[in-house]
């Protein structure tokens, strides 16, 4: 799995041919901080993770989860962040597959009201749950 510093490297590359100082400024971090993040001496804070994700066009929680996984000392907590990252990867793949299906079958897109496929810039996966008999989605009973 990618480390938070890998996401930062990807973001720096995506920012193109500007100086490291300009890149750090656009990310809202100091040049020294960026250097420590890249070397692994420090792990990015949530703000830096969000800025990196924004540059890469990712959901911020993906980069935050990578940083939290590195930061955690407890094996149980590290496992939680690792599991979340796996779930995020599956959801991203599901969105990609759905987008590919719409592009491959324009009539399906038109059936759901999308007439111009070039205007689709984001696909979102929404998990829905319908409770039965006063239970929440996990099967536990809700309080009255």
Radius of gyration: 20 Å
Terminal CA distance:
43 Å
Identify the overall geometry. Answer: globular
According to DSSP, the number of beta strands is 0
- Proportion of helical residues: 55-70%
Structural category is mainly alpha
Strand content: under 5%
Mean pLDDT: 77
Helix and strand string, N-terminal first?
HHHHHHH
Number of helices: 7
Uncertain parts:
140-144
Question: Can you summarize the main beta sheet?
Answer: none
Write up this protein.
The protein is globular, with a radius of gyration of 20 Å. With 144 residues, it is mostly helical. It has helices at 4-14, 20-27, 31-39, 46-56, 60-71, 75-104, 106-111. It has 7 helices and no strands. Helix content is 60%, strand content 0%.
Task: Supply the key terms.
globular, single chain, mainly alpha, 7 helices, 144 residues, disordered C terminus
Write a concise synopsis of the structure shown.
The chain has 144 residues and is mainly alpha-helical. The chain has helices spanning 4-14, 20-27, 31-39, 46-56, 60-71, 75-104, 106-111.
């Amino acid at each position: 799995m990618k480390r938070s510093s890998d996401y930062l490297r990807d973001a720096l590359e995506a920012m193109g041919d500007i100086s490291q100082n300009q890149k750090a400024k656009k990310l809202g971090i100091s040049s020294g901080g960026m250097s420590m993040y890249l070397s692994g001496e420090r792990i990015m804070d949530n703000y830096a993770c969000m800025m990196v994700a924004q540059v890469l066009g990712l959901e911020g929680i993906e980069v935050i989860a990578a940083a939290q996984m590195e930061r955690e000392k407890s094996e149980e907590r590290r496992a939680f962040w690792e599991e979340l990252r796996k779930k995020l990867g599956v959801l991203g793949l599901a969105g990609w597959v759905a987008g590919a299906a719409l592009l491959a079958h324009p009539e399906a897109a038109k059936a759901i009201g999308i007439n111009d496929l070039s205007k689709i810039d984001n696909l979102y996966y929404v998990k829905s749950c319908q409770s039965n008999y006063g239970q929440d989605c996990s099967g536990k009973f809700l309080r009255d």
